[in-house]
């Protein structure tokens, strides 16, 4: 007969005989075996007949009705008398409490899920469940390997992005009298940009072969599904995608184009201050005061502020103000060009805006702008693909934010494999349904 306590406890194969309170007032559940399978030999599977003795095991379990509860299972040790079976004796075991287990399977699973699905740190999950760090770390790995898919679902737009793992380290080389990088570790992430699968995988290193290797390991049908790949302006990724996914359109992320243009503006401003004032910028320099406004998009600024910016630059000595204004104008030309994305721009409109940008760069003798124009020229097919498709790598960038948060919460990782697993568990939570309010 199954009693109420057994039903409430819900440990399959175990029956609750009685509940007593110990001296601290903690409920102690006395358990007995209620599953005939428990006395089958784990090696030969034959039901044992001869009892060797009794043992008591006290596996830890989840709280019952919010209260910490202790379990005490009195179970038998059996002889296996089967001829040819290597096992002589064994104790009873059920799925929730395997032989020699000190925790119930559901406690282990809950601790693993707290890390993989609820975003807890291992330290916090260990504290919450009264377990040790290594136990929770192992529980997390087991849980993550179970819930994370081996192969990603089909992807139409793939994002490839790199993220630095830990801090770079340098050592001073006495022989050459120079600093060399001893550790500069990177992870390359593959991200689903359309269907929200999150981070599909992370690999170590950022070489072209590392990227092609991962892509080649996927089934041919999966690779064929990919229509476009978004990357930042990185020749390594470009080469890898060309090789492994020759049919896919390469799109360069506009965010990185803007970043590059802003860097050119800042470099011009710094160089003008340095050459003509003979020092670094100060709070009293008008161009220094404009440093943040110069890298903002004029389209997102109040017209009054844009006017004042242009006025301030014009009022500066020409040798300082004019080059900065030219760089700012070139950047704005580029932004105007990028703004045509998703508006179904015609070829003429695009070429007119592009021509304006190139002319602006060519008419100055600023090496910063010439370098910018060269880079835009190199990546023009991929930028044009962005204008037509509007695909951005913002999904990957969002993932990178999660990756960094995870690494900070964990105070860094020693084991890159653990880091990748933790990152993937965290970045696929939405897709696995753990971030839905229902
Ligand atoms: Zn046996």
What is the gist of this entry?
By secondary structure, the chain is of the alpha/beta class. Helices cover 46% and strands 19% of the residues. 32% of the residues are buried.
Structural class: alpha/beta
Major β-sheet profile: 5 strands, mixed
What is the count of structural domains? 4
| Overall mean pLDDT | 89
Percent range for helical residues?
Answer: 40-55%
Shape: elongated
Distance between termini?
Answer: 37 Å
The low-confidence parts are: none
Strand segment tally: 10
- Reading the helices and strands in chain order gives HEEEEEHHHEEEHHEHEHHHHHHHHHH
- Please, how many helices? 17
Which distinct ligands sit in these coordinates? zinc ion
Estimated radius of gyration = 32 Å
Estimated share of beta-strand residues = 15-25%
Pfam families: DDE_Tnp_ISL3 (PF01610), Zn_ribbon_ISL3 (PF14690)
Domain Transposase IS204/IS1001/IS1096/IS1165 zinc-finger: 39-82
Organism: Micromonospora olivasterospora
Protein name: Transposase
Describe the model.
With 438 residues, the protein is an alpha/beta fold. It has 4 domains: 97 residues, no CATH class; 45 residues; 131 residues, Nucleotidyltransferase, domain 5, CATH 3.30.420; 136 residues. It contains 17 helices and 10 strands. Strands 1, 2, 3, 4 and 5 form a 5-stranded mixed β-sheet that branches. A hairpin with a 4-residue loop joins strand 6 and strand 7. Helix 8 packs antiparallel against helix 12. The longest helix is centred in the middle third of the chain and has 24 residues. The two termini are 37 Å apart. Bound molecules: zinc ion. The site of zinc ion (ZN) has 8 residues, from loops. The site of zinc ion has 8 residues, from loops.
